[in-house]
Amino acid sequence: MTIRRRVLSLIMLATLAFPAAAQDYPNRTIRMIVPFGAGGPTDVFTRALGEELRKSLGQPIVMENRPGAGTIIGTTEAAKSAPDGYTLLMISATQTTVETLNPNRPYRLMRDFVPVASLMNSELVLVVPQRSPVNTLKELIALARAKPGTLNYGSSGPGSNYHMAGELIKNLAGLDIVHIPYKGSTGARADIVSGQIDMMFDSVPTMAATIEDGRVKALGTSGKVRSPILPNVPTIAEAGIPEYNATIWIGVMVPAGTPKPIVDLLNREINKVLERPDIRDSWRRQGANTMVMTPDEFGAYIQSEIERWARLIRANNIGIN
Fold first, then answer.
1. What is the pTM of this model?
2. CB under 8 Å to 89, separation ≥6 — which residues?
3. Phi-psi group of 240: left, alpha or beta (phi > 0 → left; psi -120 to 50 → alpha; rest → beta)
4. Per-residue pLDDT tens for 257-293?
């Protein structure tokens, strides 16, 4: 049975059981599927949210890391799940790029899931090796233009946030630079420190200590405003590419057919967590901005991200290999 047919069957079952299921929710363990490995930003902030939801909902929250295939493995697992509110999918910017990069995936985000709530966004930082001859973004752009096709940038893999951030700078600045994909960010981080690659994007919290130790040089952060963790590093927009804006973000979706009262309840409980001053301030110190949205607002945001990255991918003929 295809995922689409399975989803339709589950929707019909959920509709029949809707009144009792919604009124009794939650009465057992909820699982949160994270289509990334442990330790990254999505994993870290999902665990923090899960602990707060455990307290407010009064039920255990179990994290399931299901990395692989550029988020397709974990997302597919969630798409097969019953639409009853007991399986939550963590969604990120990466899944919105996969919508265009991999047309053969067995699900469609906006067909097989419904949005629940946004969670946070965070800036990336563009770094070069300590021994690099460039010290500013303008110097990097000048060098890349003087030597087209010779400079490279590393990422955690095709379609990742770090890959798209590199493609965006390449597109807006008109650069000819080569993408070096890694299987995760660890190898890229090691190679940027040793000088084996010319540049890379990474999350601000992850790279901050390496920058402060002087092992790499930061040329710019990717958001609209400066990061409080790296206040002396200009944004890329300030440093020479005014249109630049690329942040990592995460949120929550559930399988299509999940009763609306359950979606609304989850949205309210998540937003209560995000609106708490202690959570907001703690996350900001870690380089994350809380994002409070209704399900409809988050759905519109996801759709805009799908369309935004689709334009970039098609304009640059980006493939998954």
1. 0.83
2. 32, 33, 35, 74, 75, 78, 113, 252, 253, 254, 255
3. left
4. 999 999 999 999 999 999 999 999 999 888 889 999 9
User: CA angle 66-69-121, nearest 5°?
Assistant: 70
Q: Do β-strands 247-255 and 200-203 pair in parallel, antiparallel, or remain unpaired?
A: unpaired
- DSSP 3-state assignment of 200? strand
144: burial class by Cβ within 10 Å (0-12, 13-18, 19+)?
buried
Label residue 281 exposed, middle or buried (CB < 10 Å: 0-12, 13-18, 19+): exposed
Query: How far apart, in Å, do the first and last CA atoms of the chain sit?
Result: 29
Tokens of 66: 């299901």
- What does the DSSP assignment read for 244-305? ---EEEEEEEEETT--HHHHHHHHHHHHHHHH-HHHHHHHHHTTEEE----HHHHHHHHHHH
* Inter-CA distances, 39 with 67, 98, 133, 184, 220, Å: 12, 21, 32, 11, 24
Instruction: List all residues 6 or more positions away from 26 whose beta carbon is below 8 Å from its beta carbon.
Output: 57, 58, 59, 85, 86
Phi–psi pair at 51, nearest 5 degrees: -65, -40
Per residue in 28-38, pLDDT tens?
A: 999 999 998 77
